[in-house]
Amino acid sequence: MRLKLVPSESHWDFFKHTKVTLGASAIACLVSIVLFFTMGLNFGIDFKGGTTIRTDSEVAVDVGAYRDALTPLNLGDVTITEIFDPTQPELHASQIRIQAQEGAEAVSIDVLAQVKDALLAVDNTLTFPEVTSVGPKVSGELVQTAVLAVVAAIAAVLFYIWLRFEWQFSVGAVAALVHDVVLTIGVFSILQIKFDLAIIAALLTIVGYSLNDTVVVFDRVRENLRRYKTKPLREVLNLSINETLSRTVMTSVTTLLALIALFVLGGDVIRGFVFAMIWGVVVGTYSSVFVASAILLRLDVKRDWSKKDSEAGTQFANPDA
Amino acid sequence: MLQIAFWKRVVIWALCAVGLLFALPNAFYPRVESFNDAHKAIDAGVGTPADQEAAGLWPEFLPSGLVNLGLDLRGGAHLLAEVNLAEVYADRMDGMWPEVRDALRAGDVGPIREVKNDLGELHVRLQNPENMTRAMELVRELSRPVVTLTGVGQSDLEVTADGDLLKVALSEAEKLATDERTMGTSLEVVRRRVDAAGTREPTIQRQGEDRILIQVPGIGSAEELKTLIGSTAKLTFHPVVRRTSSDSERVNSRELLYPSLDEEGIFYVLEKTPVVTGEDLTTASPQFDQNGRPAVAFTFNASGGRKFGDYTAENIGSPFAIVLDEEVISAPTIQSHISGGSGIITGNFTVEETTQMAILLRAGALPAKMTFLEERTIGPELGQDSIDAGRIACIVAFVGVLVFMVLAYGTFGVFANIALIINVGLIFGLLSIFGATLTLPGIAGIVLTIGMAVDANVLVFERIREELKAKRGPVRAIELGYEKALSAIVDANITTLITATILFVMGSGPVKGFAITLGLGIITSVFTAIFVTRLIIVMWFERRRPKTIEV
After folding, report:
1. Which residues form the Protein export membrane protein SecD/SecF C-terminal domain (chain B) (predicted)?
2. What is the pLDDT of residues B190-243, one digit of tens each?
3. Which end of chain A has fewer CB atoms surrounding its CB within 10 Å, N or C?
4. Quick check: B448 and A258 CB within 8 A?
């Protein structure tokens, strides 16, 4: 007896409600963009400059007392958050973020010593297992490289798909990619999860994963387009998606299985990073069917592979598509 | 037919075996680590009996390369420093003034006066501007050719006139050469000071034009590291009393006994009071003497030059020692009175040696101020917590995927699982071979690979299922399954590999660590899916010859 996540024969119509699904995706993207500009991202010091100090204590964290201890130091914007980790109930950790100080490339030794002394006066069991300072010069460069990396990855992929498929596929794939990246940024805005350098790596992995999924579907579409030369595009797409559905679900489930293990047990340091990837896998799986393929259906595809003329290429296409 | 040539089978298994062999030391991490440390100590000639014992912990014939653990896993400090290169230009020009002044005075160009400026240039006001042409010529005579690969034949000084102002600046070629030297010196100084702390495998790398990345595992905090780098190494010049080969030679309270840096077993007895110290040294560079032999040229500032001149005038024929951090770098004999604050060290040197020595000499003090742009401290406990959490997460993810694959694909799932285990082994093997560094995001990359590695197998298995549904025989179904799934596997993995490559090239720190494991994971997972699983299936098939198969 085999475990079957989807029936071995499925004939679902994935394009019955393209208006609804594409509309929903478009609205979600729009909301994400609005959120990005209104709430903004909770940029980590990698991108904003400043200092973060992680504290560990034997007694419960008292955020208010920490804040009172640090206020007299006049460090500008100081954020103190307690770190919760359900798998480690005896953990009393917090993260303190101090804005980049005027004119300094990194926090000076004196400032750091003052902060530590002030905190130790509140709780003498405190230790500081992680201290990170990033100067404004480096953080500016990091933002630039990060944006460049995402754009370069998308461009490279666009080019590769175009090379291997038709341009319509390329547009569909990239629309799905942008959809995934935008939605991820939206989720990070809503939940105000710290957005740092590692999240950029997660974003790029999402790009890779989402594409992986899209390419597998497209590969089957290409094959079926050649096999069923007269079948309407919509049917070909539905057939291809149904044929690959079992694989799509299997791979997503195994990947999610691994990621959820990491999310629950991997410790709080990489939780944000893993969260981004889990979200990306879910959204990426959805988008390869409901965005990439739906757009491909709307754009239509050259069908007659023997002729170069694109006018002639659409002769068998479904006029309703 | 399902056939794989014998030689292909041998190659596939051999690759797996080699990969796993290289991954093996990581399973015995602490043991191999102490074995490696012991070996290093014995090779360096400072092995203790404990080291001898540790050297027996691991068989010699096995590979002993380990995956380096990143700072976030081991704990330690990370600093990104920027070297203020322009500062050196100003120092150089400042040091030129006595020389320029003497030359101009000797050339009778009338009264002159130095004009201070912030440009890192030397400005001299001439009271009689009509002598400008002559003055410029005189100063130009002081310039030397630049010695670099690209700047050959160019002079190191740029002399211009602006009214009654004579401007001397470093030429572009010389600035470039100076920048290279400054960075070389800074790196060397930092390396020496960090090495002195005796931590394992520090990373000291140049980044871009003017930056130095310093990562030291095991050090308490970034502040500690900054203090360490900020301390000055001591360079001194001492009169030599005698040479000896005994390290227990008795010396009086006015003398010192220091070992030689490169002659083993040789020691020098020196006068305790140095003639000059490194604080007085302004430059040192590899050069050639009159006979074309490699030598090191150095320059002192005014006060150092005077002291050194007086001493050499009185002690021609006797040796003096150049001492760096309590080791004698060299003990040349004074050939002549060295006036003007500059001299040349000759000896039986090769070009490499003089280059090295010039660096060491300059390494006495940091040539320019460093600004710290980024600093990170990770406590060892946090690193250990991350390793533990990562390990548990990996195991759970692994077991989860293994069970799931068997439930979904039965026997074929078991084959995929064998390939998956080999796959993770191969990732570690490759990481060890490349000496790559494993970071926390790197572990995430491996976990992600575990999830995605089955993808290629799933693609194939699903295809075989489809072919079986189309009433094909088992052999044909397996064959077609692999054939048809190939293009999807290749396209899907190349796109992911493209993103991994971009991450690797553009990313830094954590991102790079992630890109490495993800990229290697893609390569090994494609290899195991296309070759290993297939070979296992073929071997199983040959043995069982099933009439029907169920995937």
Report:
1. 370-541
2. 887 787 666 667 888 888 888 999 988 878 788 878 877 775 555 678 888 888
3. N
4. yes
Q: Does A104 touch chain B (CB under 8 A)?
A: no
Decide if A164 touches B, using CB distance below 8 A.
yes
Task: Kindly determine whether residue B498 and residue A145, on different chains, have CB atoms separated by under 8 Å.
Answer: no
Tokens of B166: 């004579």
Inside any domain, residue A311: no
Q: How many domains does chain B have?
A: 3
Gap from B77 CA to chain A (nearest CA, Å): 9
Whether B178 and B92 have beta carbons less than 8 Å apart is answered as: yes
**Does the distance separating the beta carbons of A131 and B377 come in below 8 Å?**
yes
Query: What would the pLDDT profile of A74-129 be if each residue is shown by its tens digit?
Result: 888 888 888 887 777 777 888 888 888 776 666 666 788 888 888 888 888 888 88
Which residues in chain A are closer than 8 Å to B495, comparing Cβ atoms?
157, 160-161, 208, 211-212, 215
Last residue of a domain, one of A81, A105, A134: A134
Residue B198, burial from CB neighbour count under 10 angstroms (0-12, 13-18, 19+) = exposed
A262 touches chain B (CB under 8 A): yes
Residues in B touching A4 (Cβ below 8 Å):
408
- How many angstroms separate the CA atoms of B457 and B414, rounded? 11
Taking the CA of residue B367 and the nearest CA in chain A, the distance in Å comes to 20
The verdict on A244 and A171 lying in the same domain is yes
Q: Which of residues 63-102 of A touch B (CB under 8 A)?
A: none
C-alpha–C-alpha distance, residues A129 and B377, integer Å:
7
Round to whole Å and give the CA distance between A280 and A265. 19
Integer CA distances (angstroms), B86 to B91, B169, B183, B188, B440, in order:
9, 12, 12, 19, 38
For residue B405, the enclosing domain spans: 6-29+57-74+380-544
Question: Which residue has tokens 């006797």?
Answer: B318
The complex's ipTM?
A: 0.79
Whether residue B303 is found in the same domain as residue B405: no
Asked if residue A209 lies in contact with residue A235, where contact means CB atoms within 8 angstroms, the answer is: no
Q: d(Cα B262, Cα B277) in Å, to the nearest integer?
A: 21
